[in-house]
Amino acid sequence: MIQEVPNTVIQDEYYAAVDLGSNSFHMVIVRVLSGSVQIVSKNKRKVRLAAGLDDELQLSEDSIQRGLDCLKTFREQLEDIPPSNIKIVATATLRIASNAAQFITRAEKVLNHKISVISGEEEARQIYLGVAYTSANQGNTLVVDIGGASTEVIVGRDMQPLHLTSVDMGCVTFMERYFPGGVLSENNFDKALAEAEALVSLHAPTFKCFDWQQCLGASGTPQAIVEILLKRGINDAIRLEYLFKLRDEVIASKHIDSLSINGLAESRRVIFPSGLAILIALFKQLRLNNMQISGGALREGIIYGMLDNYQRADRRSQGINQLVSRFHIDTAQSDRVKKVAISLCRQMCQQSNFCDFDTEALISSAAALHELGLHVGYKKFHEHGAYILTHVELTGFTTLQRMFIRDLVGMHRQEIDLSVFDNYQDDFKEMLINALRIVRISVILCTRRRDDTIPAPTLAVKGSQWTLSFGDGVLLAHPLVHAELIHETWLQHKAGWKLICQ
């Protein structure tokens, strides 16, 4: 059964978090209603505050004014929210600027609200909270956030950070320091990379003592790289080989004005080379195999820090529950298919090398949401479901995991589109194929939509050959399910997989 999320937060209230970062100022506003947190507004402005620091760490008047002008646009929305539900924090640049107090005093007058300048460690803690809430994890997770003037690295388990640090390097400060005049030479890039590696190496031994199961990047440069990969038809985690190819493209551009990469947002173009150098350094020094994108960062951490009860909720169950309710999915049928899928998944994972600690969660989530598209209409409802999942929030899952669930829902019935698998790396592809076969079979076994009419097979896995054993007379007693399985055997055969039902 899908878990119910405790309804313990004050109902129908608005909360706001404002992050005065070194590159951008962010504001997020959420509505808390009926046990769910709904984002109603996001506002982001490129201020590049760190670019206004001189050699004496003095903020220029121009950079101060850019920040104040941005806050004037934020003020109007904040006026409609109870002051106790607003939290505004400032990070790296305002930690180190010699005239930070001058900016803070003027900014507080603009906003009519107190601003807290948080330490690097507190920033790291809040980032981890935002990531942990929006991208639920099992086991230890390494989290990386590359900011404008600092980079936070955290390893934690569930909602608890275990070790964290803030490193004085960021995409704005490194761009100013190592790419003067916007020149993108191999020498400049190597200098930025060497400095970043030297800084990370001071902390790498401690972090490598922890055995983490996944690495998550919190927005910024990692998000920019994922968007580039998607434009190239690559549904994959970030890998060092991709970063090296992007480094070569950056250097080949020779100047920031000539840098043009399909999928790279114009707002990130100027600071992309420096962020890329820092990310490569992190991959090399921490020996990262891959990195996925989290669903949140500092702003979300601030919000959920104000909502203590939500920290204890099952974020994934909450996200699934919200969609089940919002799109009027038949909860009884959703639970039936989910229960069968989990049973088959556990049998499959005992016999397959293509399972990780999230396989069951992805399969069960797709099973629970497989009828999402019926909200639009029956014809091609699997495609409608995939479309909806492309455009809605799904709390507790990374970007790549949301793609998995989307594709499982989109192919849970009718013909199997093999081209969907082409954009995944081999290990992810095999996991997706196995997951898809389980979801499709589970839906068929629950065809009659009754708890007492679901056959319970034993699954034997031998490579791509799967055998479902039902026992004597079971298939004869369920002719509708039997007919659907015969048809499914043919569809899987066309996809190159063998399914035997006996």
TrEMBL record:
<dbReference type="InterPro" id="IPR030673">
    <property type="entry name" value="PyroPPase_GppA_Ppx"/>
</dbReference>
<dbReference type="InterPro" id="IPR023709">
    <property type="entry name" value="Guo-5TP_3DP_PyrP"/>
</dbReference>
<comment type="function">
    <text>Catalyzes the conversion of pppGpp to ppGpp. Guanosine pentaphosphate (pppGpp) is a cytoplasmic signaling molecule which together with ppGpp controls the 'stringent response', an adaptive process that allows bacteria to respond to amino acid starvation, resulting in the coordinated regulation of numerous cellular activities.</text>
</comment>
<dbReference type="GO" id="GO:0015974">
    <property type="term" value="P:guanosine pentaphosphate catabolic process"/>
</dbReference>
<dbReference type="Pfam" id="PF02541">
    <property type="entry name" value="Ppx-GppA"/>
</dbReference>
<dbReference type="InterPro" id="IPR048950">
    <property type="entry name" value="Ppx_GppA_C"/>
</dbReference>
<dbReference type="GO" id="GO:0008894">
    <property type="term" value="F:guanosine-5'-triphosphate,3'-diphosphate diphosphatase activity"/>
</dbReference>
<comment type="similarity">
    <text>Belongs to the GppA/Ppx family. GppA subfamily.</text>
</comment>
<dbReference type="InterPro" id="IPR050273">
    <property type="entry name" value="GppA/Ppx_hydrolase"/>
</dbReference>
<dbReference type="Pfam" id="PF21447">
    <property type="entry name" value="Ppx-GppA_III"/>
</dbReference>
<keyword id="KW-0378">Hydrolase</keyword>
<dbReference type="InterPro" id="IPR043129">
    <property type="entry name" value="ATPase_NBD"/>
</dbReference>
<dbReference type="GO" id="GO:0015970">
    <property type="term" value="P:guanosine tetraphosphate biosynthetic process"/>
</dbReference>
<comment type="pathway">
    <text>Purine metabolism; ppGpp biosynthesis; ppGpp from GTP: step 2/2.</text>
</comment>
<protein>
    <recommendedName>
        <fullName>Guanosine-5'-triphosphate,3'-diphosphate pyrophosphatase</fullName>
        <ecNumber>3.6.1.40</ecNumber>
    </recommendedName>
</protein>
<feature type="domain" description="Ppx/GppA phosphatase N-terminal">
    <location>
        <begin position="28"/>
        <end position="309"/>
    </location>
</feature>
<dbReference type="InterPro" id="IPR003695">
    <property type="entry name" value="Ppx_GppA_N"/>
</dbReference>
<feature type="domain" description="Ppx/GppA phosphatase C-terminal">
    <location>
        <begin position="316"/>
        <end position="488"/>
    </location>
</feature>
